[in-house]
Write a structure and sequence with these properties.
Helices cover 21% and strands 29% of the residues. The protein is an alpha+beta fold. Strand 2 and strand 3 (33-35) form a beta hairpin. The chain starts with 12 loop residues before the first strand and ends in a 20-residue tail after the last helix.
């Protein structure tokens, strides 16, 4: 059963995150689907948008594309999405060792 959180406080902007099922990579829900780049995520400014994108996330769970879906608070500063919590800042700054650079399934942003 999917455990989708929709906890939010008034005036909070959120991003939806998950782990990609094929490789466990942290991903964020964007306009064109899941991306490993936080800056490709959609910053959701209100409860209606959050609900709409959570429905998209539920469909991704049903298609077995992602697991562990939840939203987290962000600030948007000069068009840059910045996580509010240290946990999400760490998750967004993940590193990934790509063992097969010819494998197109690894659409991963590498952060230094």
């Amino acid at each position: 059963m999917a455990n989708l959180s929709t906890k939010r406080t008034k005036d909070t902007t959120n991003v939806i995150t998950a782990n990609r099922l094929t490789d466990g990579v942290v991903v964020f829900l964007g306009e064109m689907g899941w991306t490993a780049d936080l800056q490709g995520a959609v910053a959701l400014p209100d409860a209606e948008m959050l609900e709409l994108y959570m429905d998209i996330a539920k469909n991704s769970i049903a298609r077995q594309e992602v697991v562990a879906v939840y939203e987290f608070a962000v600030e948007v500063r000069d068009n840059v999405i910045v996580p509010v919590s240290a946990r999400e800042l760490i998750r967004a700054g993940h590193t990934m060792l790509i063992t097969d650079p010819n494998n197109k399934d690894y659409n991963v942003s590498i952060y230094q």
